[in-house]
Design brief:
Chain A: This is Sugar ABC transporter permease. The complex is a heterodimer of chains A (332) and B (305). Chain A is an all-alpha fold. Chain A has a single domain, classed as MetI-like (MetI-like fold, Orthogonal Bundle), CATH 1.10.3720.10. Chain A has 16 helices and 2 strands. In chain A, helix 7 packs across helix 10. Chain B is an all-alpha fold and 305 residues long. Chain B folds into 2 domains: 63 residues, no CATH class; 174 residues, Orthogonal Bundle (MetI-like fold). Chain B contains 13 helices and no strands. The longest helix of chain B has 52 residues. Classes of the chains: A mainly alpha (332), B mainly alpha (305). At the A-B interface, helix 1, helix 2, helix 3, helix 6 and helix 7 of A face helix 1, helix 4, helix 5, helix 6 and helix 7 of B.
């Protein structure tokens, strides 16, 4: 395992691959072929259980989703009435509905703010972890681990309690500690903007540890000699980060950012539970929650299906890069 | 690079960078280290506080929680909230939900591990036509948003008359955790050189025997880590359980907690915090067990050890 070649994916993959992953494409050595022979039907048999489950719970519903999204499918159809084909009418309905654009815009802006805050704070935390003496690093790691480990639902409820109108600690500290009387009995969740502030805090609080730990793992692979040489040449801390550390970490940055985008765009639990605690649903729905509201709560599976397909397309587009990059890096 | 090896160089290199620091900048550096350390204590408090606040509130009498004074420490320590959550017959009962959660989660982990293990062997130890296609499919499936699929999953499970059953929920959970489990296990199996098996086969083992006696024992840590990921995922899952198992006696813990929250509104925060703590404890314990390996599975394409 070499330490200096990380961040230069082709080189690393080659070392990795040659040793244990892929046999060289041209003229594979005999020993490898011996262990990696075709094996007749064995590999297919081994894939049967996993494939069956995925086909039943992912493949089949996916087809169903596409079909439903082109049908008039309401409560009556759930109880057995035959659905009527409306082809792309549901999509037209959704795409001409101002509510959908409100929800979409809200989700995009909210996800963007969350992703940027998470990435910036996560990067700063990773850099801080690197500068800390061992004991303090362990302490901070434990704190972040606790935040990361909290189940999203528990986390949302705890934050909801901390932001409680009457007895929450945040209002109490603002009033008694800072003398800000306007926060006495201040409701944080009624106003959509401050609702999303609270939701954003919950999501960023839970996501920063993942980014920080991942980037910290990457930071330890940046060669110390190069950084030191740059310092001797007079490069400041920011310049060193921008010109040396960042290029080394670029693949990790991209992938964590994409994962954050996907997770934040489809966020459900935090928004849904906060609405339970005190938000106004109609003003605070995001894509994930909106699909649930329209189809499960509202009973309009056709329209809900169309929204789901549109959401899936948006998310798949974003994740395309992740999939492509992973396939390339792993030399499949 | 598999997840097992990703942590080792991290520690070594971090040590090296720290040793270099004092030589470089001397007194100024010591001052900045002190400042960073102080900052890290503040940040630790920020990250840990909500968890502490949840536990702290859960040990206080509800009338104090609803008082004007803030108690930063449970001065009047009480276990009554836990008694309310666990034994109060008037509320949605905790015990059945906990049992449901345990049954569904453990079954999911075991079944997903077995299925994923077989699939991981197939894609790492054999060359066959659709191998690459299968791996790409696994990656793509991981990217499909569950929230978008929930409606059709509901209808499929309903069609099989498995709504409000533990079997139905388990099947869906197995499918949910499978892609990630296969992907991670594939990395672990790759980490065990096939040469070891060949050596055993030359010594007279059958192909299956060689795998079972040589490779499998080496995979034990990987299986444990992957199993824990699956456990956390299934234990925390909320949307699917909310839609599929809405009947009170069939709820899992997250759905129970949500019901408990809605039913008790904001009148009994102390009990809600007790319930929340009970749900969070297993996950926090597991996280502390596998901490270092959490990141490497997800970004294995980018983080190369």
């Amino acid at each position: 395992m070499t330490t200096t070649d990380t961040g230069l994916p082709p080189a690393v993959s080659a070392v990795d691959g040659e040793r244990i992953v892929t046999p060289p494409p041209v003229e594979p050595p005999k020993r490898r072929r011996f262990s990696r022979r075709a094996g007749g039907l064995t590999p297919y048999a081994l894939l049967v259980p996993a494939s069956l489950v995925l086909a039943a719970i992912v493949g089949w519903p996916l087809i169903q989703l596409l079909i439903t999204s082109m049908q008039e499918f309401g409560r009556a159809q759930v109880f057995g009435a035959p659905p009527t084909w409306v082809w792309f009418e549901n999509y037209v309905d959704v795409l001409t509905d101002p509510t959908f654009y409100e929800v979409l815009g809200r989700s995009l802006v909210f996800a963007a703010v969350c992703v940027v805050s998470t990435m910036v704070l996560g990067t700063l935390m990773a850099l801080l972890l690197q500068r800390l003496p061992k004991g303090f690093r362990l302490l901070l790691s434990i704190g972040m681990l606790l935040a990361w480990a909290m189940p999203p639902l528990s986390a949302t409820i705890v934050w909801g309690w901390m932001f409680d109108t009457d007895y929450g600690i945040i209002n109490s500290v603002l009033v008694n500690g800072f003398g800000l009387e306007e926060f006495r009995q201040h409701s944080w969740l009624i106003d959509p903007l401050s609702f999303f502030l609270v939701a954003g805090i919950i999501i960023v609080w839970g996501a920063v540890p993942f980014v920080a730990f991942t980037l910290y793992a990457g930071l330890t692979q940046v060669p110390e000699e190069v950084l030191e040489a740059a310092q001797l040449d007079g490069a400041g801390a920011f310049k060193r980060f921008r010109l040396i550390t960042f290029p080394y970490l670029k693949p990790i940055f991209l992938i964590t950012t994409i994962l954050q985008i996907i997770w934040d765009l489809k966020v459900f639990t935090q928004i849904f539970a906060l609405q339970d605690i005190g938000g106004i649903r109609a003003l605070t729905n995001t894509l994930g929650v909106y699909i649930y509201q329209v189809s499960i709560a509202g009973g309009d599976f056709g329209t809900g299906g169309a929204i789901a397909v549109i959401t899936a397309i948006i998310l798949m587009t974003v994740s395309l890069y992740y999939v492509r990059q992973t396939i390339k890096e792993e030399e499949l | 690079m598999s997840a097992t090896t990703a942590t080792a160089p991290r520690a070594a290199r971090a040590g090296a960078s720290r040793d270099l620091a004092p030589r470089r900048r001397g007194a100024r550096n010591r001052l900045s280290t002190a400042l960073w350390s102080a900052l890290s204590v503040v940040l630790f408090a920020l990250f840990a506080f909500p968890v502490y606040w949840m536990v702290n509130t859960s040990f206080q009498p509800n009338n104090e929680v609803r008082g004007s004074d803030i108690h930063f420490w449970p001065d009047n320590f009480t276990l009554r909230n836990y008694a309310t959550v666990l034994f109060d017959p008037g509320r949605t009962p905790f015990a059945p939900a906990a049992v449901n959660s345990l049954v569904v989660t453990l079954t999911t982990v075991v079944v997903a591990l077995v299925f994923a293990f077989l699939a991981a062997i197939a894609v790492t130890r054999f060359r066959f036509k659709s191998r690459r296609g299968f791996i790409v499919m696994i990656l793509v499936i991981q990217m499909i948003p569950g929230e978008a699929m929930i409606v059709s999953i509901f209808r499929v499970i309903d069609g099989w008359h498995l709504l409000n059953t533990l079997i139905g929920l388990t099947i869906v959970y197995v499918a949910t955790v499978l892609p990630f489990t296969i992907w991670t296990l594939r990395g672990f199996v790759n980490g065990v050189p096939a040469d070891l098996e060949e050596a055993a086969m030359i010594d007279g083992c059958s192909r299956a025997g060689a795998f079972w006696r040589v490779t499998f024992p080496l995979l034990a840590p990987g299986l444990v880590a992957t199993g824990v990921f699956g456990f956390i995922q299934a234990w925390n899952e909320f949307v699917i359980a909310l839609v599929l198992n809405a009947r009170p006696e069939m709820m899992t813990l997250p759905v129970w907690l949500r019901t408990f929250l809605v039913a008790n509104g904001t009148t009994n925060w102390a009990a809600i915090m007790a319930g929340s703590t009970l749900m969070a404890i297993p996950v926090i314990v597991f996280f502390l067990i596998v901490q270092g390996r959490m990141t490497s599975g997800l970004v294995s394409g980018a983080v190369k050890g």
